[in-house]
Write a structure and sequence with these properties.
The protein has about 160 residues and is α+β, with helices and mostly antiparallel strands. The protein has four helices and ten strands, in the order ααββαββββββββα.
């Protein structure tokens, strides 16, 4: 007679597992943690779905192999987990932003360090349904590209 024990994680733990997987570039694991209607919003002109966000995240990790997000979980309020991130890295390969209509950013070999950004990550059941980045003027994608000395091609 075997007893199966399913460990139930709290929302903070679920988000920590997600953030760890993003930092490691384990995007298949990340994909499994997202709801079918997942949305990412904040640093882009409009919210994007899971497929586009995962594509962009993969592209960023490929372009910045030493990318560090410096994630820190702050606290939980109901279904929302608050965290911060401060991305930094060195641009070692072309950065493909075609999934968000911003073209291919040629390699610059420059480093960047973004401002600290506040995150609101919504947990629905045991999956992530929303990753919202609060607007900052030095932490968004345009600011990162500015530090690299490039402007995106917009379609």
């Amino acid at each position: 007679f075997e007893t199966v024990v399913k460990e139930v994680m709290n929302k903070r733990e679920i988000v920590q597992v997600l953030l760890d997987a993003v930092q490691k570039g384990e995007f298949k694991h990340v994909e499994d943690m997202l709801t079918d209607d997942f949305q990412f919003s904040g640093p882009l002109p409009a919210p994007i779905n899971a497929a586009i966000w995962l594509n962009m995240s993969n592209s960023m990790k490929a372009a910045f192999p030493d990318l560090h997000y410096h994630f820190k979980v702050i606290g939980t309020e109901g279904t929302i987990v608050r965290a911060t991130m401060q991305m930094s890295g060195t641009h070692h390969a072309p950065f493909d932003l075609s999934a968000v209509n911003m073209g291919l950013i040629p390699t610059t070999h420059k480093t960047f360090s973004a401002a600290i950004q506040k995150l609101r990550i919504t947990v629905t059941g045991e999956k992530i349904s929303l990753w919202a980045v609060e607007s900052t003027d030095r932490g968004d994608l345009a600011a990162v590209l500015g530090q690299l000395g490039v402007k995106p091609v917009t379609a």
